[in-house]
Each structure stands twice: as C-alpha cells, then as structure tokens.
Amino acid sequence: MHQFLPYAWFGGTCVPFAEATLSVATHALHYGTGAFGGMRGLPNPVDANEILLFRADRHARRLSQSARLLLTELDEATIHTAILAFLKANRPTCPIYLRPFVYTSDLGIAPRLHNIQTDFLIYGIEMGDYLSPDGVSCRISSWTRQEDRSLPLRGKISGAYITSSLAKTEAVKSGFDEALLLNSRGKVSEASGMNLFLVRDGVLITPSVDQDILEGITRASILELATVMGIPVLERPVDKTELMIADEVFLSGTAARVTPVRRIENTELPTHRPIMERLRERLTAITEGRDPDYDHWVSRIRIDA
User: Fold this and answer.
1) Average pLDDT for the chain
2) Residues with Cβ < 8 Å from 206, sequence gap 6 or more?
3) CATH number belonging to the domain at 136-272, selected among 3.40.250.10, 3.20.10.10, 3.40.50.970, 3.30.70.2740
4) Which of 149, 169, 171, 241 could form a disulfide with 179 if both were Cys (CB 3.0 to 4.6 A apart)?
C-alpha cells in the first residue's frame, strides 16, 4: 500500500493530494499521451531540513525532452520551481520517490497531439527498496520491447508502459520477480522498468542505445562511475545466452537503484558480485551526499526556508 505525500503540485500550485483529481474524460487517460519522470529524494542524514535529490538537472532535462516528443513545451526551470514548492509543502522526513507527469489534459476524444491542452503535475510516495537488494529472479518475457520507429523511446511516454506492465505481470504470475525484454531483433533490451548490466571477464557490458532501451539516468551515472573507477566498459548488443554465463548481472533505475539478478529462468547466477558491489557502494555514497567528488550530482533543497 503506497503512502502518498500529503500535497501534490496540481494546476500550478500545491494542493492536498486528495484534491488533485482529473476528469474521467481526460485525454491522456484514454490514449497514453503523457510522459513521466521519477526522482528519488532523501533527508540529508546530517541535516533533516535539507532534502537531497539525485541528478535533478538530468531528470528535469529528460522530462522536458519527453514533453517535446508529445509536441508540447515544459521548460526545465518550470519543473525545478514546481519541485521546490512541492518539497517545501510536504517536508518529507523519510526517503521518497517523486513522480512528475506532463500530460494532455483536454477532454476531447480524438487521438491527437495538435490543438490540445496540456498540463503538469507532481505527486510523491514514501519509498525504500523497490526491489530486493539481495537479488531478484528474472524470466525472458514473451513480450517484445517496442521499436523506436513505432514509439519515441527516448522519452518516458506513459502509453509505452503497457508492454512493461504485461511483461511484469507475466513474470510474477509465472513465479519470477522481474521480466527481461528482448527487442525485435532478438537482442536483450531492458527489464520492465530498469536498464540491465552484465559483467564478463572483468568488463562491464550493457545494451547500447540502439537496442531500443530507455536512456536511463542511473545507467549513465554507472557508466561514468565505472570509467572513473577503472572498470572497463562496453556498450553493445547483448544476446540472451550471455546472461546465463555472465559473472554478474544487475539492474539499474531510479526506483530499483542497483539490484542484483540472482537467477534467470532456471539458471542460478554467481552470488559474488565485486564490480556491482563497488558501483552500488559508490552510488549510495553519492546519493547520500558523502562523496565530495560527485557533490555536483546532488541538489540540496532547503525545506525550512
């Protein structure tokens, strides 16, 4: 059961969460014509009046770009201003997940993106671990990841997540925690809402951006950190059989953070994951404001001002 934060950003201001309601005729509800972001925040361990947001600038940029894919404008400054007001209204005291959402708010029935009203909202929930930090089991989904030629996969378009939803439920109902999707060329793409990494012979490998993946912000952060930490990195197409013989496999995302994969189908994977552990520890230190080399990745928001 989700614990929603008491206030939402809705209609250009902060209102009680229960009052942030939409019409049943809202265009985005029927056609998936929205785009969302996901952002983690936590109270500073040494200053409870300060909220730490991980890579807020990158998240705002991606949401603004996603809005452009929907043929609307939502500038980064507007997003930042709304997030600031949202955090000051809610004054969270535990780790949270923010969900900003730009959407077609018109009440028309024609599937279109021209001559249509759009709006922007933010709500939040309390969130600890989205997936077990000890590891998850995965199955190869029978559903195929969409192609960029049919959907703008560089954005988090809400309508695209029907495939993720089908894959996730298929996985859970067949006894697994998570799904791994292949693309239309039979290569590994991503999980239902996370990017994927594997390690072979000391090399960190991840499906490249031409494999119909979402260009994840946590993914990009891990790639940069690995390079700085002297870990060889390779972005390329990945075959599903490589996962079965990999030394390490893990998932990454804003909600999932860094989550190990312990089993794929009927194959148990190694439990010794030294590269993943190094990256997870470094990323955790950064998000908690304990790594001065990457303090520029953390936005410190005062909520007592």
Assistant:
1) 96
2) 195, 196, 197, 198, 219, 223, 233, 234, 235, 238
3) 3.20.10.10
4) 171
